[in-house]
Amino acid sequence: MNDKGNMDQGQVIQRQFSPVHTAGTEAHSSGAGGGYVLRISVVAALGGLLFGYDTAIISGAIPFIRPYFHLDEYSLGWAVSSILIGCGAGAAAAGIAADRFGRRITLMLCALLFALSGIGAGLSTGLSLFIVFRMAGGIGVGAAAIVSPLYIAETAPPDRRGRLVALYQLAIVAGILLAYLSNFILAGIGDSSWRWMFASQALPSVLFGLMLLLVPETPRWLVKKGRLVEARRILSKTMDPASCESTLGAIQDSFRNEGRAVWSELCSKKYLPVVTLGIFIAVFQQITGINVVLYYAPVLFKDTGMDDSASLLQTVGIGLVNVAATVISITLVDRIGRKLLLKTGSGLMGLSLAAMALCFRYHYFQHYVILCAMLVYVGAFGATWGAVAWVYLSEIFPNRIRGLAMSVATLALWLADFIVTYTFPVMQARAGNALTFSAYAVFCGAALIYVLVKIPETRGKSLEEMETLFLK
């Protein structure tokens, strides 16, 4: 990844918290340009909607592709998790593309990959071709996971940044819900319904690409490319003239005054502790089992005796709870703090997984206990780890290494997601659902201990204050 491109994300956030930028922030707070910033942030966040849609559409297709491709537990895990290999590649390439072509053009390329991968997967007649297209979609997912928040970070005022960045997670869960609804509607077509499930993602992909035509490039990238007139015009829509000029000058200064970070610095004594902290946050978000529920929910419900239609309908309920919980997270993250939410989420998720393990152990599937436990688990994740982990990762890294460290943490997240997603069918077949969910519950307990011991609160602190907090 281009070091200078990674540096830019940290630079712009640093300048947003500098005194010279405060005037611009006050303009936002008083309403100047607030609607404009919200609109372009919403469009950028829609990259998360395609993220959620592309990754979750597989859940409804599993009952159909398993017999079609003759999948055992190993090949099923590979078919479902292969997209995450593409995610890792997309995350690695996103910085170079965003730096060279711009944030907006890179997101347009993501939209194109989303559309082509959906159509290609739907038309696939062999497992190898199906996996190739899923990986191609994963490249778009991985790139959007970095570029969409980056776009928002470079345009949002600091007093609203936490909520606007959280919009990205809201878009992800909205995409997951949309995928569940699509699966439920299309499941009745017949044995070929899985093809329409994948192909359906072309429609939101095209809409996202068209909406990107209506938003500008970020002022930060424009200044970097020497296009000051365009950058000034965009900044003038978000703040008063005096703040516009001072902010533009601060951005220009940042290119002259900031050094260039290198990968080796991440392993230095100064930065390694905070980088390690970020990696643990990213990994815990995944190894506590969330994507097992999101990807394999219909399979789990069928194990309790439900038919395909009832399984897909209850999966829609999971999507609705996920969206509602994320909205709650957006309202709480700047009020009660990150650490309390992470602690509460770890505890509730662990208890819910333990309840599910007991139900599978004793084959107790009455009174919707499994469904209720799963809904509590998904709700707890959505209100805590789902959104808060992304917000926390965007805050803790020092400005100098922010982009590089985010890339490492995001790659760790995708690798953890891949391992969990790939191994679940194998663990389910070899150890059973009870032991599998017990293992995820233990990981929730480990996450709780780690948060209690290692995670400091960051609410209300500027990035400069956090550098003092994390760099001992």
TrEMBL record:
Its main location: membrane. NCBIfam families: SP (TIGR00879). Belongs to the major facilitator superfamily. Sugar transporter (TC 2.A.1.1) family. This is Sugar porter family MFS transporter. It holds the Pfam family Sugar_tr. The keyword Ribosomal protein does not apply. It is found in: Membrane. It is a multi-pass membrane protein. Keywords: Membrane, Transmembrane, Transmembrane helix, Transport. The keyword Endoplasmic reticulum does not apply. Residues 40-459 form the Major facilitator superfamily (MFS) profile domain. The chain crosses the membrane at residues 36-64, 76-98, 105-123, 129-153, 165-190, 196-215, 274-297, 312-333, 340-362, 368-392, 404-425, 431-453.
